[in-house]
Design goal:
By secondary structure, the chain is mainly β. It is built from one helix and 27 strands. The strands form six sheets. It has a five-stranded antiparallel beta sheet with strand order 1-6-5-4-3, with no helix packed on it. A hairpin with a 4-residue loop joins β7 and β8. The radius of gyration is 19 Å and the shape is globular.
Length: 319
Amino acid sequence: MTRKHPQSSPVSPPSRRAVLGGAAAFAVAAGAGTARAGGHRPAWPAEFPLPDGWLPEGIAIGRAPYAYMGSRADGAILRTDLRTGASRVLHQGTAGLVSIGLKLDHDGLLYVAGGAGGTARLVDARTGRLRRTYRLTDGANPFVNDVALVRDRAWFTDSRDAVLYGVPRGRGGRVRELPLGGDWEQVPDVINANGIVSTPDGRGVIVVNSTAGELYRVSLRTGHATRVALAGAPDVVNGDGLVRVGRTLYVVQNRLNLVTVFDLDGRATTAALRRSITDPRFDVPATAARFRDRLYLVNARFTSPQTPETTFTAVAVPL
């Protein structure tokens, strides 16, 4: 399944991946909403073809209009210009590696979760060069899944173990291992901890347990997990990527083809359902990232064949 990607090579959208009429209509509407007076700004695309067999999972966007999308096939990272849809392979893939969740720091470093490899990789978002690899665990069955940047560390979830790993940001140092306690209940042989974001007060993190369908607030001092009370929704089962904008939390529920939007209280002890986002272009979206007034999601297509010939896309929806 491993593909050879020339370093920084352009990726041409396959002809069979023409954007659907409905998506094109959305792109026009979205572009019209952000155009300058006189309507001189062209509409930004709302759907992006990825290379066949890419097997996407994570997406990260910083302050500039570029998305970074990792591959489960060989750990490569694709860089896409949100204004044009043009893509190139930023970081070369290697047999045996995967790139799951990823986040872009203000210093230009991408923090990349290494899945079953039990690693965290730091990749330069400008050059694509691997800067450092941390082995987070020597456990028999790890799955390092997602990451959030909080204060001086990048915090990684492990879907197979009740622990968070804190990697120092932008410098060397020791990884901090933070066992999850309190209300947290770990179920064997399923996906537990998945998406992770900081709390509105910046003192902890919110973690989604995919199988249990629960949100938890976790103290980064003690690891104590407190179940977040949901109002208006019974659960967030299949919860995957999380995005927080102020006190608004977006939960991607992958196999449900759904994004649920919650209002958090200041301490993230309760989450009240505001609305849900669906779109006919969703095909098991895994994670999401925000840029301006849009949410960008990668379609992991977990219910489709995961082969070198399988087609994949990323899509944008309005916030």
